[in-house]
Design a protein that fits this description.
The protein is of the alpha+beta class. 26% of the residues lie in helices and 33% in strands. The protein has 4 helices and 8 strands. Strands 1-2-3-6-7 form a 5-stranded antiparallel β-sheet, sandwiched between helices. The protein has a 3-stranded antiparallel β-sheet with strand order 4-5-8. A hairpin with a 5-residue loop joins strand 6 and strand 7. The protein binds nickel (II) ion. Residues 95-97, 137, 141 line the site of nickel (II) ion.
């Protein structure tokens, strides 16, 4: 947090770049970095590439033990649109670019996700719950937004205090 690239709007991937080696390399780097850091997702600006690409995946994540499994999703040029009347999900979020801090972020429970795959195929689906929250968190990165911009300020907590006071309550709902 504070690194200017995290506040820039990432450029879209151009038609000629789909299926390219450079795009695939970027995606491999994102996935490797996400795995190495136990992230639930990662966006290209977080590895100093201001390009509209992000990845997400949850497989029994030690940083987010209460999260359900979310299969690997690779999104190029993603756009999310809230589904009206779907209510809110309010998760304590963290971010590899905001280390050591969690905060509760209200987000639409269900969103329409449109994106392209790395080879250029269209993705158009409804996502909800934890998956929708992670998608929105990662897509925010591509617009220069961080979770602390939306977090309820009085819920901001250091990781140690999060583990002591909040995690025991969240564990019940998994
Ligand atoms: Ni993040």
């Amino acid at each position: 947090m504070g690194e200017p690239i995290l506040r820039q709007v990432a450029r879209s991937v151009g038609d000629a770049e789909f299926g390219s080696t450079s795009l695939q390399t970027l995606i491999s780097d994102l996935i490797d970095t996400m795995h190495a850091a136990d992230g639930a997702g990662l966006s290209a600006p977080q590895i100093f590439e201001s390009v509209a690409v992000c990845v997400l995946e949850v497989e029994r994540n030690p940083r987010y033990p209460a999260f359900p499994r979310v299969p690997l999703l690779v999104l190029v040029n993603p756009v999310v649109e809230p589904i009206d009347g779907s209510g809110l999900i309010q998760l304590y979020e963290g971010c590899l670019s905001v280390p050591g801090i969690r905060g509760r972020v209200p987000r639409p429970y269900r969103v329409r996700l449109r994106a392209r795959t790395p080879t250029g195929d269209a993705i158009d689906r409804i996502v909800e719950g934890v998956e929708a929250a992670i998608v929105q968190h990662e897509v925010d990165h591509l617009y220069g937004r961080l979770f602390v911009d939306h977090a309820e300020s009085t819920t901001l907590t250091f990781l140690e205090e999060y583990k002591r006071y909040v995690a025991p309550l969240e564990a019940v709902s998994s």
